[in-house]
């Protein structure tokens, strides 16, 4: 009976590992390749991310006995795609990964820094993320035009599963893409691919423009789009893990993995709901087992990073990006909602979105940084001070909570 009670959280953790990996590994590989990684370096980065996730999830789960799910930064990988080639190549990008990890550790050690990040207006943060992932989310449309025979089955499978089994929509689309590649792709397929994992060390370099265009936005989108929502999801299910030690731990894990090509690991947001909810186990005290199983699952999946890279190389680039775009559509929807739902700050959010989505590079610095700057300046320009209340000796007539009418009696002072 005891073993039967462990089975549900173990299965939940393994499922969340598979869903998290299959839903966005194409985004990770596309992002690393975009900033200059070779196929072998990108596969090494994917392996390093999986190992960092496994070690961190298992360690934190055992330490705090809470379902603290860990994932790679999917918005951060999308940022790399939007940034494209950088001065100094992949070593400069790895240097930016290290600085972003250091900022994460600093946020855990210095309370005011974490508060400063949390103080970034939600519309501006949402608009920056939406601008970063917009080009990826339009890729399925471009794929339909360029490769209709390959892209149409992928999108149809995604749409059907999104309607009836949402968590399997992107893995199903990926499976459809694999079948399409096997049918229409080059001869030989994956027969020459190797399952042997390979970790390649890249000596980092520090390039000021790359640090500004990658390190700072990577840190910000990881905090705003992963760590903050991840804590919110856990709070929804009654868990309150200490944020600062989690930031330090994930930052250190990111720093160790960065020289091998990993961009960032952080708290999970989507898969956190899969491991922290009541479906994992009726007893909240046993749900931490799911995150340990998630870590074990990620470790196993990471060993196939070279095979994943071989699959991506066989596929037309637009098809790979299309699958990544399908994975990011829900993130685009939520980030746009955060950007424009509130009337206050909407103009600044729109400016942030437009500048970020433009993809413009100025002084060697990518558009995500300039979008954040433009949005912040717009918010300051349009900020209006509220007029100070006019002093009066008259007491306002209280409002009847039922009728809403004003009554003649006055309230005692200080009520």
UniProtKB/TrEMBL annotation:
Where are the membrane-spanning stretches?
12-36, 42-62, 69-86, 92-112, 124-141, 172-190, 210-234, 246-276, 288-311, 318-337, 349-382
- Record protein name field: Benzoate/H(+) symporter BenE family transporter
- Which NCBIfam families does the protein's record reference? benE
- Where are the residues of the annotated region Disordered? 388-415
**Record has Ribonucleoprotein as a keyword:** no
Question: PANTHER family, per this entry?
Answer: INNER MEMBRANE PROTEIN YDCO, MFS FAMILY TRANSPORTER, PREDICTED SUBSTRATE BENZOATE
Organism of derivation: Dactylosporangium salmoneum
Keyword Transmembrane helix carried by entry? yes
InterPro entries (alphabetical): Benzoate_Transporter (IPR004711)
Which key words are in the record? Membrane, Transmembrane, Transmembrane helix
């Amino acid at each position: 009976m005891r073993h039967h009670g462990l089975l549900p959280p173990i299965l939940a953790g393994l499922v969340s590992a598979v869903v998290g990996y299959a839903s966005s590994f194409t985004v990770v590989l596309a992002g690393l390749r975009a900033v200059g990684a070779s196929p072998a370096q990108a596969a090494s980065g994917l392996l390093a991310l999986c190992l960092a996730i496994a070690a961190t999830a298992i360690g934190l789960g055992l330490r705090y006995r809470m379902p603290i799910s860990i994932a790679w930064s999917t918005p951060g990988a999308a940022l790399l795609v939007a940034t494209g080639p950088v001065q100094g190549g992949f070593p400069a990008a790895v240097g930016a990964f290290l600085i972003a990890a250091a900022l994460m550790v600093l946020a855990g050690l210095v309370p005011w820094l974490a508060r400063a990040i949390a103080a970034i207006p939600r519309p501006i943060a949402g608009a920056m993320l939406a601008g970063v992932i917009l080009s990826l989310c339009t890729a399925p449309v471009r794929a339909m035009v360029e490769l209709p025979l390959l892209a149409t089955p992928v999108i149809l499978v995604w749409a059907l599963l999104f309607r009836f089994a949402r968590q399997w929509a992107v893995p199903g689309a990926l499976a459809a893409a694999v079948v399409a590649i096997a049918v229409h792709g080059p001869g030989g397929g994956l027969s020459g691919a190797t399952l042997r994992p390979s970790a390649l060390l890249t000596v980092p370099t520090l390039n000021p423009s790359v640090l500004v265009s990658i390190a700072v936005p990577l840190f910000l989108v990881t905090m705003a789009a992963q760590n903050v929502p991840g804590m919110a999801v856990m709070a929804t299910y009654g868990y309150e893990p200490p944020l600062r030690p989690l930031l330090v731990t994930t930052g250190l894990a990111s720093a160790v993995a960065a020289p091998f090509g990993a961009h960032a690991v952080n708290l999970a947001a989507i898969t956190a709901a899969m491991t922290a909810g009541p479906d994992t186990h009726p007893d909240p005290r046993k749900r931490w087992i799911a995150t340990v199983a998630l870590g074990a699952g990620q470790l196993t999946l990471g060993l196939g990073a070279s095979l994943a890279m071989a699959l991506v190389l066989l596929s037309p680039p637009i098809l790979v990006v299309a699958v990544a775009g399908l994975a990011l559509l829900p993130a685009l929807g939520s980030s746009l909602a955060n950007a424009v739902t509130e009337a206050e700050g909407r103009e600044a959010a729109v400016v942030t979105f437009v500048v970020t989505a433009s993809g413009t590079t100025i002084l060697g610095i990518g558009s995500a940084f300039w979008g954040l700057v433009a949005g912040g300046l717009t918010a300051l320009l349009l900020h209006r001070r509220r007029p100070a209340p006019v002093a009066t000796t008259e007491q306002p007539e209280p409002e009847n909570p039922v009728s809403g009418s004003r009554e003649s009696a006055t309230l005692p002072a200080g009520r």
